Amino acid sequence: MNEKTATGFSSLQETLVTHFKWFHSHPELGHHEWETTARIRDILADAGVEILDTGLKTGLVARIGNGGTVVALRCDIDALPIAEATGLDYASKNGCMHACGHDFHLTSMLGAAMLLKQRERQLTGAVKLIFQPAEEVANGAISVLASGALDDVAEIYGLHTTPGMPVSMIGVSPGAAYAAVGAFTIRIHGKGGHAAHPHECRDPIVALSQIIGAAQTIVSRRTNPFEPVALSFTHVEAGNTWNIIPEEAFAEGTIRAAGREQFNAIMRRLERICKGVQEICGVQIDFHCVLNAPAVHNDGELVEFVKQTAQELGLKTGPSAPTMGGEDFAFYQERIRGVFWNIGVASPEPAHNPRFIANPAALGTASALLSAIAEKSLKRLSSVE
Ligand code: NI
């Protein structure tokens, strides 16, 4: 790196840290990212970046470059309902917190926008920069896809901070990176009555306990031990006193699997258990289950491309640890080839913890890698055509 670029890099880094601290101290929940969106819009407009008219209420899509091939970079911009306890001088005080690093993601995308803008004439196509709303509520990606803004995109890349990795280290692996995630509810309508006369009732609590017990055999007996799956009941409700068998019982929980098919198989199995218990207990059971997000599945060839690009920038790379967490980036990958990669931010605590801290020292690196990935993928795609 010569002196001129070194100076340029450090001033970009300083600018990014200032922006990052502002975003960190102004977190907003999914679909309510009004101030965040306005600020992103201002910063991009100052840099002369075109903002597309997508109809999105929060979040936005910007565009840099020329006609022809289009690749996309994606970040998320929403925060979590967590009261911050980091003690940082730029900590949030509004009861919400960027405890998943989305402030880091969006700031590094702003940096990438500035770098790509400087190289706009050299680009062999166009880059769309997606500042996606509402990742934490798992439907922001759907609204971006519905806007049509990605219809012409050939490849898509996204990043996520990894708390447990050293600052600026890049983690990326082929295959499943985040799980297919969904939620289910079970509502049991029985017949209430006196606890002393159970034979005159249809006890929904006993029915529910049988469902919960039998559901444990789905993971232990019905799925391949080599395939990661999780099925958890997280909320149960029934009755309110000691001598009344209630009319109803309710439970909800989550299913996590390595892909849509595996998710559907577990969902169907749970539904069959509900039907069986309905039969043997003489109760009425309503079962509902929705897939919130499919699995993030990284394209093997493009993973190699990201790794190589990172190494050319002098960055250390390694595998990313797969997680049973969800990420709606998966919706883009169902339509567009892409890679979701990780960057180390050396947080003392894990994501979604009130003491999570993304080290801003990695911002410049994230921006440089995002912009290099976009520029190089355009070059590769346009040479193939
Ligand atoms: Ni996140």
Order of helices and strands: HHEEEHEHEEEEEHEEEHEEHEHEH
CATH topology term of the largest domain: Aminopeptidase
Q: How many distinct domains? A: 2
Provide a count of the helices.
Answer: 9
Do you know the CATH architecture of the largest domain?
3-Layer(aba) Sandwich
Which ligands accompany this protein?
nickel (II) ion
- Ends apart, CA distance between termini: 33 Å
CATH superfamily of the largest domain: Zn peptidases
Major sheet: 8 strands, mixed
Keywords for this entry:
385 residues, alpha/beta, Alpha-Beta Plaits, 8-stranded mixed beta sheet, 4-stranded antiparallel beta sheet, elongated, binds nickel (II) ion
Quick summary:
Helices cover 37% and strands 24% of the residues. The protein has 385 residues and is of the alpha/beta class.
Explain this structure.
The chain is α/β, with parallel strands linked by helices. The protein folds into two domains: 263 residues, 3-Layer(aba) Sandwich (Aminopeptidase), CATH 3.40.630; 114 residues, Alpha-Beta Plaits (2-Layer Sandwich), CATH 3.30.70.360. It contains nine helices and 16 strands. The strands form four sheets. The protein has an eight-stranded mixed β-sheet with strand order 1-2-4-3-5-16-6-15, with helices on both faces. Strands 10-12-8-13 form a four-stranded antiparallel β-sheet. α1 runs antiparallel to α3, α5 packs antiparallel against α6 and α7 packs across α9. It is elongated, with a radius of gyration of 24 Å. The N terminus is likely disordered. The site of nickel (II) ion has 4 residues, from loops.
